[in-house]
Write a structure and sequence with these properties.
The chain is of the alpha+beta class. It has eight helices and six strands; from the N terminus they run αβββααααβββααα. It is elongated, with a radius of gyration of 26 Å.
Amino acid sequence: MKMLANILIKFRRENKSNYKKDNRASYIIYKIVDQMPDKNIFILQCINTKAIFHLPLSNIVSDGDILYSLHPIQACYVGIEYAKSIKTASFISNKVAKKKINNQSVCRYGKYTLLFQNREKQICFLDKLTDKEFLMDPADIAISQELIQEFDASQAFYIGFLAGVKINRTNRKIKSFEKVYMPPKLKLIMNTNFNVG
């Protein structure tokens, strides 16, 4: 009997040491099941329950408990949608929104963690397993499901927000270029009062 107890104790120790410390499932509580784009309302469901509720995008962003309890891919999508929704807001409100978003940058789980953003608006992130740093465009990270799901939900939301801001800027530049650009018109003006000597 004592020998069996020692084997079980040893087995438990080995399992604890081999246990992957990425306990993402304990943090992901909600999932987005549908969206009403005309009203900018999301339908969320508590995982492993049938409870659903409707929330506007602004309430999801302002409630950190809900936002940071989403899957990283869905949090990134919420960030992109939030950037699209505030594109008409003034520059000052964008600054305030970015400061509010930056407050939650703790990495609770995931393979990657954000380090900084450079002047070219690229994001540097660290692979926690290999200690390698990567520098990428936020839109490229947001598009790649393999990359974005390895971030914490709070950081995935921020990446999505930055990608959405960049997408809005490029769309605005394209639209303004289409409106402003007009082919040159040349007119031939003849002066009849001009005398050649």
